[in-house]
Amino acid sequence: MPTRPARAGLAICLILAAMCALTGCVGQPDAASPAPPAAESAPPQPQRDSTQTLWTIEGSDTPLLDDDPDVIAIQRTVALHSAAVDNRTANTVETAVGEEFSFYSEEFIAKLDAEGYRDATIALYRDNDLTTEQLGVAWSRSTISQDRIRATVGFESILHFTTGIDEYLRARDLEQNERYAQARELTLVKVGDVWMIDDIRKAPLAKSPTLNE
Fold first, then answer.
1. In this structure, is residue 46 part of a structural domain?
2. Is residue 48 part of a domain?
3. Helices (H) and strands (E) in the chain, counts
4. pLDDT digits (tens, 9 = 90+) for 1-48
5. Contact by Cβ (8 Å): 152, 164
6. CATH number at residue 178
7. Fewer CB within 10 A of the end CB, N or C, for the chain?
8. Structural domain boundaries enclosing 82
9. CA distance to 21, 38, 58, 99, 202, per residue, from 18 (Å)
10. Tell me: the pLDDT tens digits for 91-134?
């Protein structure tokens, strides 16, 4: 489970399954997603303990410090992606999905397109008048492969629904303005010098304890 909650900075702009997103599946729209990020806005950042690190080289205990260039680049990609997924409305969802896809590898895009993810996500938000807003993020144990071309990231997004059709929310045991947390495991691959998301696994949404203010 994630160990370091952090406040969200400015909301910058995937959630994968309408039904699936709430049951931990990948490839279908989620009920928690964002508006496109502003180009100059900083992504949400975790609180840090300078004496510890959540990052190691895969298959070893070799630590990676928070100032490692790959760690910095990977965290930025994951934070910006989560903003694009967790801050969206019925009016902004189409643009937000486009922003979301900018963080994906070609292989992951092909998989989602084959599943009809884009149209399903847009319909989910518009048909149910959904608005979601990210409130914070947290990081958990993460690794980078020894050849530094693949990474597995533990991450949690904390969000709430500010609008939504009552019937939709009740059917999923959701409430407006209630804090929810969703743990995610993201796989990233290095394409040239850029880290791209290649897969996502998600836990169901769960009510979140009070976030540090």
1. no
2. no
3. 5, 9
4. 444 433 333 333 333 333 333 333 344 455 544 333 333 444 454 444
5. no
6. 3.10.450
7. C
8. 4-38+53-207
9. 6, 26, 33, 19, 13
10. 999 999 999 999 999 999 999 999 999 999 999 999 999 999 99
